[in-house]
Amino acid sequence: MEKNTAYHTLLKNLGLKVTPKRLALLSVLGEEHRYLSPEEVWKKLRRSFKNLGLPTVYRNMEELERHGVISKVLHSNRQLYYYFCPKTGHHHHFVCLECRIVEDISVCAVREMEKEIKRRVKGTVTSHILQVNGLCSGCAGKQ
Amino acid sequence: MEKNTAYHTLLKNLGLKVTPKRLALLSVLGEEHRYLSPEEVWKKLRRSFKNLGLPTVYRNMEELERHGVISKVLHSNRQLYYYFCPKTGHHHHFVCLECRIVEDISVCAVREMEKEIKRRVKGTVTSHILQVNGLCSGCAGKQ
DNA sequence: CTGCGTGCAAAGTATTTGCAAACCG
DNA sequence: CGGTTTGCAAATACTTTGCACGCAG
Lengths: 143, 143
What we know:
Two copies of one chain form a homodimer. By secondary structure, the first copy, chain A, is of the alpha+beta class. The first copy, chain A, has two domains: 1-86, Winged helix-like DNA-binding domain superfamily/Winged helix DNA-binding domain (Arc Repressor Mutant, subunit A); 88-143, 2-Layer Sandwich (Dna Ligase, domain 1), CATH 3.30.1490. Helix content of chain A is 45%, strand content 20%. Chain A contains six helices and five strands. Chain A has a two-stranded antiparallel sheet. Chain A has a two-stranded antiparallel sheet with strand order 3-4. In chain A, strand 3 (92-96) and strand 4 form a beta hairpin. In chain A, helix 2 packs across helix 3 and helix 3 packs across helix 4 (54-66). The longest helix of chain A has 13 residues, at 2-14. Chain A is globular. The termini of chain A are far apart. The relative contact order of chain A is 0.10. The model of chain A has no long low-confidence stretch (mean pLDDT 84).
């Protein structure tokens, strides 16, 4: 299994122990080109691992997100979703609210992005979430 | 109270009944240049209204958000926050994760935004959430 | 009056935590 | 072996719902 070797290496590089469940979790996320909720991942994994706890899935997904391996998809319904994006470098995502597929978008300006999405994905942009987080001058000083 | 008249009109235009609590809620949000959680708003309002239920605050904030009067601030901790933004037209926000102040950003490209933030707010951008939502070609057809 | 708005109590539900046992390296 | 990882059960905590009463129009 080439893929598994890759995931194996990935985990090692992060300093995480390589367990069958972690490999399977990465595999599920890696094969899916859509974002998934922890519960969905759990249901898929339980086919192979009868005794898999939902908390384990939550913990691992959170951990992997912290390491930047997978990314969180924000939903206004305030549920967690994750997506495995192998692409490196600065880029953003176009997500379909219906089928949950994710497409990489290389350009960053939203106007430009809309154009690219119309052209490449032939999709419709219904909304976008753009929020810049940081610290204002006052708070940056206090750190 | 000029402000109250404005909120009064605002509610009327939305076809919502004008109640003292709604006016006060708008007032709290309108005076605060920061995003607030429903509970925080509730605590502030309870100074004036002893019998104010938290659900009422949730309901009203959700309603106002639906009407586009206030906007939801996304947090990865999956809690709800709202911010009253009087500014119209296409623009985005810079939010300080520390003091929660919100600044309007007129330009849309993220690179440009970072520049503007550094210049105007003298703040530091630690991260940004940019997610374009919509429907891909396949799903758009199925609608 | 008439229905929207609200308080209160109660339910929901996704997510998190504690702890002992299992497992990787 | 020694510290992670995991299962299970239970707890959290935010948010939502149901229903009866009250108030705006």
